[in-house]
Amino acid sequence: MQESQPSPIALTGRPVISATGLFTPAESISNAELVASFNAFADRHNAAHAEAIAAGEAEPLPYSSVEFIEKASGIKSRHVMSKAPILDPETMCPRLPERGNDELSIMAEIGVAASRKALERAGRDPQDVDAVLCAASNMQRPYPAMAIEIQQALGIEGFGFDMNVACSSATFGIQTAADYIRSGNARSVLVVSPEITSGHLNWRDRDSHFIFGDVATAVLVEDAAIAPAQHWDILGTKLKTVFSNNIRNNFGFLNRATPETAGSADKLFVQEGRKVFKEVVPMVAQMILDEAMRLGIDPQALRRLWLHQANAGMNRLIAHKVLGHEASEDESPTVLDTYGNTSSAGSIIAFHQHSDDLAEGDTGLICSFGAGYSAGTVFVRKIG
Ligand code: COA
């Protein structure tokens, strides 16, 4: 008698979030440490340019301040992959030894660490994952894709590719993964966001030196038919982009074609913070309200908002417009205080750390926004 084949599971085409994973670097820099380093750099700079400053030909570099940073941004500390060189006023940049082509690259390494946690939480065997999307604001190299390296390290068959939508990369990745599920092209997709933002931050720029931190997150998006009993139904996803130069980084492969400016400050993260604040808050609040209406969700009944973590004031205003009242920390949790802005990973860290306590049936929103401009919403409901 022939052994009968197990009958294939009937897919639903309904995407869910089965689990998330988080990798946090061990080292962290407090505002006090950061400001001490910046001010030591400013002293050196001003001493080196004392004559020009005295002659009125150059402006002295002003000090940074812990009070300003905390008040303007809500950030108190940030995790980094390489603390000592960042704080060394001579270096003010991470130092990560170059690895051989036969070694796992550092971005893939932290992406794999976050992915393993997500797979473990979902009880998912890597062999049952169909695709890996590496969705982040900076890639370590143009090719081969980080996603393919992560795929190989995890032992996943199928395919992988990289995508960059700056701070919104993770939500754009979630919608892309959800669309694979909706179309039946995949059953299980890993969206990985390794963010070594310390590499693109100008630690010598007083206006922005406090903003970013390093981290990696992973989100496992699956067909409801194969998801673990406890998961998050994806009720709807929406993406939006509007071109803006207010957050810009001119780093790229053509820099070597203009060697005289290849090392200038615009090849790192640069922003007009005030303009970003003013323009992005109304755009995102309206997008959330429009999408809630389209999905038939009462925004004021949302149990929790997991917002992009760039600025506490922005989140306060967006949450107020959406919920119709001042949001409590329980309604709109902050991870910005200890992680800083981790670009695309921010809203996923908030979701990862502040979702276990919600009850079955609770509805919430993962929302990202940033450079591009780009914004993404993922409305979810807890099941199980
Ligand atoms: N320490 C002390 N003072 C500082 C400082 C620092 N590190 N950096 C700037 N200042 C000063 C400025 O010189 C300015 O002084 P002035 O009023 O005498 O000219 C004053 O503080 C205000 O500067 P400004 O840049 O207008 O601050 P802000 O209140 O807009 O806060 C940000 C700056 C970046 C925190 C804020 O604009 C922000 O977070 N915007 C949103 C950014 C965002 O979400 N970006 C997305 C990135 S992905």
Give the helix level as a range of percent. 25-40%
Principal-axis shape equals: globular
Supply Rg: 22 Å
Strand order of the largest sheet: 5-4-6-7-1-8-13-12-11
Strand tally is 13
What do you see in this structure?
The chain contains eleven helices and 13 strands. Helix 5 crosses helix 6 and helix 8 packs parallel to helix 9 (312-323). The protein is globular and about 80 Å long. It has helices spanning 31-48, 50-54, 66-73, 83-87, 106-122, 146-154, 169-183, 273-295, 312-323, 336-339, 346-353, and strands at 15-23, 27-30, 77-80, 131-135, 159-163, 188-196, 214-223, 231-241, 247-248, 270-271, 304-307, 363-370, 374-383. The chain has 384 residues and is an alpha+beta fold. The longest helix is centred in the last third of the chain and has 23 residues, at 273-295. The strands form three sheets. It has a nine-stranded mixed β-sheet with strand order 5-4-6-7-1-8-13-12-11, sandwiched between helices. Strands 2-3 form a two-stranded antiparallel ribbon. Coenzyme A is lined by residues 64-65, 68-69, 72-73, 167, 206-207, 247, 271, 273-274, 276-277, 310-311, 314, 341, 370-371.
